[in-house]
Amino acid sequence: MQQTTNRILIFGGGELDEWAVKLIRESDTLVGADRGAWFLLSQGYRPHIAMGDFDSVSSEQMAHIRACAMSFRDCDPIMKDYTDSELAYMWALEQKPDEIVLLGMTGTRLDHTLANVQLLRRGLEAQVRTTLQDAHNRIALTASKLVLTDEGFSYISLLPLTTEVHGVTLEGFQYPLQDATLTMGHSLAVSNKLIAPEGCVTVRTGEMLIIQSRD
């Protein structure tokens, strides 16, 4: 049965391919941030909104995006304080969806990749479930509890986003933890695996990145 969650997919200017298209549901709101809007159009999808400075597309591509997107918002590429991805994410949070999925947010620019991972803190603060996904990884952030299901990812790693994360308990994992403390800069919780259909991560204090990955 198709899910009907109020979900927004944001397509950025990073690495995108057929894997991203397969994630689209008919009920999704599609946001194209800069070159992400061109990707959607090239795959036969009209963005519900296209936004950014569009410095990563040609003038002809920008004209096509402007003509085809249901809504279009551009900004000066110099006089702005946010990346295109953050602008799109801020807009998405204002819509108060149940879920936001960030796509095309990783690639050759490590600075942009790390900045996009840190956007997950905004979703945590707004209590909007957010994941960042690429062809090999799905990343979420929790400060309380997160339930994971086996969806074909080989590994699950936990990385503190705060200096320390206390009260970490893992259930349904090959290497369980009980009321543990994880410290930034240590690799204790890297490359774990699910041994049950579901795994539960519980955190008492601190913020924890949960990365599901496959080679």
What is the CATH class designation of the largest domain? Answer: Alpha Beta
Estimated helix fraction:
10-25%
As for the CATH topology of the largest domain, it is Rossmann fold
> What's the structural domain tally?
2
Order of helices and strands: EHEHEHEHEHHEEEEEEEE
CATH architecture of the largest domain: 3-Layer(aba) Sandwich
Q: Biggest sheet: strands, sense, closure?
A: 9 strands, mixed
Tally the helices: 6
Tertiary shape = elongated
| CATH superfamily placement of the largest domain | Thiamin pyrophosphokinase, catalytic domain
What structural class should be given to the helix and strand makeup? alpha/beta
Number of strands: 13
Q: Compute the gyration radius: what is it?
A: 18 Å
* Average pLDDT level: 93
Question: Which segments are poorly predicted (pLDDT under 50) over 5 or more consecutive residues?
Answer: none
End-to-end C-alpha gap: 29 Å
Q: What strand line-up does the widest sheet have?
A: 4-3-2-1-5-6-7-13-9
Which percent band covers the strand fraction? 25-35%
